[in-house]
Amino acid sequence: MQEYYFFLRLTHDQCLAYYEGDIEYIQVVEDGGKRIRFPATHIRRFVSSIGVSGRFRLQLDDSNKFIALEKVA
Known about the structure:
Largest sheet: 3 strands, antiparallel
Distance between the termini: 21 Å
Helix content: 10-25%
Number of domains: 1
Number of strands: 5
Order of helices and strands: EHEEEE
Shape: globular
Strand order of the largest sheet: 1-4-5
Number of helices: 1
Structural class: mainly beta
Strand content: over 45%
């Protein structure tokens, strides 16, 4: 299993683009400098009226398949 930590900040308008299907993936740079891309559907539960803001942990299996995304701070 692999774990990646990163900070994500998206405005309400940016989140709206994900909800409307204009953008399918989110790309972040994790703490070690590696670029990670994952389906935008995984952030939906973290969206508030102001957007998304916080530190997250992404867990992938050994085949780079999604396991979990959780907000850690």
